[in-house]
Every structure is written in structure tokens, then in C-alpha cells.
Write a structure and sequence with these properties.
With about 180 residues, this protein is of the alpha/beta class. The chain has helices spanning about 30, 40-55, 65-80, 100-105, 125-130, and strands at about 10-15, 60-65, 85-90, 115-120, 150-155, 175-180. Strands 3-2-4-1-5-6 form a six-stranded mixed sheet, with helices on both faces. Helix 3 (about 65-80) links the parallel strand 2 and strand 3 (about 85-90). The longest helix has 16 residues, at about 40-55. It is globular. It starts with 8 loop residues before the first strand and ends with a strand.
């Protein structure tokens, strides 16, 4: 009988609620600097508590460099065990990402990571989740701020040495849970 290992998991997290854009300033710099609201900070911590309660501490984090995404991850991290997410990669291509960019970022993830948290923005996160598991009706409700989608890589618990982030695609991962804690 094969020894089961922890399946590879991808957790998609849309950043929590941010302050409204500065009226009249449509620059990338202004948008990148938008912080979380107080409610957004609380939601980020709830996401972290939910991940902790469900045993989903990430080995690696792929995060947009936007302030609101980094603050979302900080809130999540505050509720996780100290050894979680030692490897954090700020990836500029996650900001305003299209589907191809997010696929590329995931495929470049550390091969040893079993659980990856990707913190990003809409519509990219929604599009990515739909591409990964387009048949799942849970995703029909949309990706509100601070929503989490947990995907499991098919077969990665049975043949861990034959599954990888570098080779994953839309037939590799299936939605396990979709929630907004």
C-alpha cells in the first residue's frame, strides 16, 4: 500500500478591503500604495485564523507588491504558527495579472513547497480560479475581498515525486474549499 503524503495545495487569496483610490490620481504608484481599511485588516486576520484552524500553513507565499496585498499577508501571517511561510516572494507580475502571468508565477514556485499561498487581485485571481476548476459552482459567487480558494493537486498525495508546480495546469488542481472567513 502506498504511503500517503500531504497533497500539494494552492491557496488563492484576494487581498482584503482597501481604501478607495485617490480621486483624480490614476497613477500606478498611487494604486500600489493603497492600504487596507480597518475592516480589511480584521478580515485578513480572520483568513489567517481560518487557515490555521484548517491546518493550511503555507510553505511559500507568492504576493503582489501592492501595499494592500502585503498588508493582507501580514494579517494572515499574524494568525499562523511562527515557522509558517518562511519563504515570501514579492512578484510584481501578480499586480494587475492576467491568467498567463499567474500560471507562470505558479509554475516558478519553489518545487519543495507543498502548500503555496498566492495573494493577489481581481480579476486575475477569479480568472485563475476559474481556469483551475471551471466546473465548480462554488466559484460562481465571485471573489470578494478576503476570499480564499483552496485547491489540491490531483495525485500529489500518492505520487509526490511525480507532481510539481512546474508542470501543473488546469487538469492538475481541483477546488477543495472556497470561503470568505
Amino acid at each position: 500500500m502506498p504511503v500517503l503524503s500531504t497533497p500539494r495545495r494552492l491557496i488563492l487569496l484576494r487581498h482584503a478591503e482597501a481604501v478607495a483610490p485617490d480621486p483624480g490620481n490614476f497613477s500606478v504608484e498611487s494604486d500600489m500604495a493603497r492600504p487596507l481599511t480597518h475592516d480589511g485588516e480584521c478580515a485578513a486576520m480572520r483568513c489567517g485564523m481560518w487557515l490555521h484552524q484548517n491546518g493550511l500553513a503555507p510553505d511559500a507565499v507568492l504576493c503582489s507588491p501592492a501595499a494592500r496585498a502585503q498588508q493582507t499577508f501580514s494579517g494572515v501571517q499574524s494568525a499562523l504558527p511562527p515557522s509558517s511561510a518562511d519563504t515570501v516572494f514579492l512578484r510584481p507580475e501578480i499586480y494587475e495579472a492576467d491568467l498567463g502571468s499567474l500560471i507562470s508565477v505558479l509554475r516558478q514556485a519553489p518545487p519543495q513547497a507543498r502548500t503555496i499561498l498566492l495573494v493577489g487581485h481581481n480579476p486575475g485571481i477569479s480568472d485563475f480560479a476559474r481556469w483551475l476548476d471551471g466546473r465548480n459552482e462554488m466559484l460562481d459567487q465571485g471573489f470578494a475581498p478576503a476570499s480564499l480558494a483552496v485547491f489540491e493537486m490531483i495525485g500529489s498525495d500518492l505520487v509526490p515525486d511525480q507532481t510539481s508546480w512546474a508542470n501543473c495546469g488546469s487538469l492538475s488542481l481541483t477546488l477543495h474549499t472556497f470561503t470568505r472567513p
